[in-house]
Amino acid sequence: MWAYYDGQWVDSTTPVLKLNNRGFIYGDGLFESIRCSRGKAKFLSLHVERLLAGAAVLSLNCDFITEKFLNEIIFEINQRNKFLAGSKLRLVLTRNSGGTYLPEQNNTSLCLLPSAEVESEYIAPENFVELGVYREQQKPINKLSGFKNCNSLLYVLASIYSQEMKLDDSLILNSKNMLCEATASNVFWLKGNQVYTTPLSSGCVNGVMRKVIIQITNAIEQDISIEQLADADEIFLTNTGSGIRPVIKMQGRVYETNYGVQLTNRLNDFIKE
Asked: Hey, what domains does the chain have and what are their CATH numbers?
């Protein structure tokens, strides 16, 4: 498949990174997971907003990144790979090589990779999530917490734990021992007729889909412990790639999934507006 790297279109299996790439050596960069429909990115303005905010925190120079520029290369990568319905793409921004922990420069390289071909709309899942809690490591709360940076070891370890425990996903706690997020998703829960989610002050990623679902459901941001979450009526996970994933079971308790399933239809209707 075709990929984009610093102005060139290359085969996605072609080695293009140098061994001194700072993203490879130090995890010095950011990424975005983007969902497309018929060649165009969903919620691109929100992705650009988060990416540029993260770049500012990391002192990365990326003046070339605009919504117009990304629209053009995203449309072309979908055309080149014949993704006629929908696709998932991964955008990676890394600081250019040079230096040790102290970089010699702050200029950046951009890579856009195809991840998968998918449906044009979000589809309500037929299989629901069995959820666990990863307690071995906690996520710190700081100015990096809200961005998708290239150091993802916490999520790697939590995903390994999920696999070992035969779970579909696991919740991650923050340094205050409160709910933060799941391995690749923000967490929402329903209590009565009100939807809730963790605030950005919990250290969760400032998810693009999180913003959309807050707008659709008028969700309230609230800190919560795992013990309090267990009393929710429904729990569901959200991210841009998969949409909404209802939770069927957590730590032995079974949950309803009706609200989460129906929310997928509301999400698709919201996108069409």
From this structure: 2-118 (3.30.470.10), 129-272 (3.20.10.10)
